[in-house]
Amino acid sequence: MRHFPYRFWTTLLLAAVLGLGLLSAPACAQSGSTRIPDIQGAGHRTPLDGERVAEVPGIATATTEEGFFMQAPTPDGKPATSDGIFVYTAEPPAVEVADAVSVMGTAQEYLRSDRDRDLTVTEIDASEDAATVMVTASGKALPEPTVIGRSGRKPPARTIDDDGLSAFEPRQDGIDFYESLEGMRVRVDSALVTGPTRGDRAVVLADGGRDAQPQTWQGGVAVDPNDFNPERIGIDGELVGGMPAAAVGDRFAGPITGVLDYNRGHFELLATQPLPDLAPAELARERSDLSGAAERLRVATFNVENLDPGDGDHFEALAAQIVEGLKAPEVLALAEVQDNSGPTDDGTVAADATYRQLIEAIGTAQGPRYAFTDIAPADGRDGGQPGGNIRVGLLYRPDRIALAERPKGDATTATAVRAEGERAALSLCPGRIEPASPAFEDSRKPLAAEFRFNGERLFVIGNHFVSKGGDAPLFGAEQPPPQPSRQQRNAQAKAVNRFANELLAINPDANIVVLGDLNDFAFSPPLQTLKGDALRNLTETLPRPQRYSYIFQGNAQTLDHILVSDALAQAAQADIVHLNAGFRGASSDHDPAIARLSFEP
Fold first, then answer.
1. What is the pTM of this model?
2. Which of 33, 197, 392, 529 could form a disulfide with 493 if both were Cys (CB 3.0 to 4.6 A apart)?
């Protein structure tokens, strides 16, 4: 919501007088006028913030419901200062694209979202009583768009910012590069989709992604400890009728032209001309090569994205992926299983109907019969969609593996590690790990279960660590971006690592699997804390083009992990099965990960 008066004055009478020849229209850049580059300045904030600016000349390049973009008729020739700007009018402006205008108003920085860590957008507030927007001519030629890419200005390929925004370096820092084009007409050629359509938006790489690294098997880009891919750019189709359903690897057959804007933590090209046809990549969803065997057991993790029993189609799609894509693993750790009433906030916490509905759908898809185990959370205490009471749960195949017969835990009682001779055991099965710890406040509690397979004990710990929801955006006002959620994830990782070490203290050869949606990267401090000296992260063994399970704003990343103890690591095989992330018609926003473990004598 904008917080300005909804009044807009256009000097139609003055324009009529000009049309009669009683007065002369001002020159586009006459003495005493303010130019757009002067307002923009070489930085992220206008040097004229709060000041009145008069007779600002421009050519209208795009209109919205509450203003318009305009660009200087003549560029200033300085790459660091943008020649474009947004003019806020609070209602549909009396301006058409290709009109020459002269604007009087107040230069300001405006925060377009409720997220105070976003960048502000430089604009002219022309909604005040004393502001004017005068159309001086119509049908003018639009300024030529600046090409983002090889045939124009290439964005930095590795660095978003390396100086805490203390220096403005468009050639070195991606955040400065896009700021130097804010509000200007731009063009992207041979756009390769690296972030699938969400609403009216997708994320692309210019020039078919030829200069982008590291690439995924789909053709997108993946995050790296030293490269979060500043060359990504959003495409917003709101002004041209929306965005086609694009998947990662698809290509736009022609150039995309629009104005450069900033919205909710990301720079984007706001398309002003119809989008070109989309050439689909037609990539096939993967199927795991890891089959079961008498002495091999498979465990998998799958975030099923708010599994609500009221959404029957969701269950069918997930069941097909479990049976066909994962080949029905013996143990499946699920994240985001909702209670029996879904998002209805009625005090329900049990999810037995949700599990049974999924188990029946797996059977309909010609899969084996599964059983389930979980611990219902206290109502409204584990985060997630309000009313849904999401939790971590386990599906397992009784024809292949047995759940240990021990007392079952509850929402608030912690399971403990105890010794049975030289073997480790759980006091509660399943049981929660440190459910009263502040580390798991308003977050999912880890679920630990003890199984029997081929005469051996297997400990499976399912997790869904706290999300990155409150963190600052990569292209935000604070650099490097603060990540307050990481502190809680690190505390969660310490708790789970501590539990694994308690098992290993009793039996150094204990078979332990820690898996789930851990909401962070393998190279992050929380994952390093979780791994410690006790566990090995199997997702790190995958080829780099395969090493991702989630795509956010065009950045492929691994959030779903499987870690194992040394007793299982040497002969283990792992896979992330790309079924959803980047595809059209996905059943979840995550890809599942799977591991095959050897229990040979």
1. 0.93
2. 529
